[in-house]
Amino acid sequence: MKFFRYRRPSWKTILGITAAKKRIKKDLGITALLKPFRWWGNQKRKIKRAVGYESDAGRLIRNGLPKPVGCLVILVSGVLLVGLSVAWVMV
């Protein structure tokens, strides 16, 4: 389980509006009526799970090795900015 969510919940979700709309749609039978139209998306998800598309190995194959250079660039630029600001203050 992840400690932090990738996206923050919307106000509608926090207030329970989304859950209420889903409950109403289920009670009216709209969800069951639209079930055949979700078939292909569900099949794609099942195939991807069977292949391991969202597994750690699948992500590694798709995205390549993690690149720690991004952190290094931020660190070096921060050190340079601090150094330049100190030099500017000294002059």
Describe the structure.
The protein has 91 residues and is mostly helical. It has a domain at 8-54. The protein is 70% helix and 0% strand. It has helices spanning 11-15, 17-28, 30-33, 39-51, 56-63, 69-90. The longest helix is centred in the last third of the chain and has 22 residues, at 69-90. It is elongated and about 75 Å long. The termini are far apart. The model has no long low-confidence stretch (mean pLDDT 87).
The biggest beta sheet, please?
A: none
Report the portion of residues in β strands. under 5%
DSSP summary: helix tally: 6
Series of secondary-structure elements, N-terminal to C-terminal: HHHHHH
Overall geometry comes to elongated
Oligomer: single chain
- What's the total count of β strands? 0
| Helical proportion, percent range | over 70%
- What distance lies between the first and last C-alpha atoms, to the nearest angstrom? 52 Å
Secondary structure category: mainly alpha
The stretches of 5 or more residues where confidence is low (pLDDT under 50) are none
Task: Report Rg.
Answer: 24 Å
pLDDT average, as an integer? 87
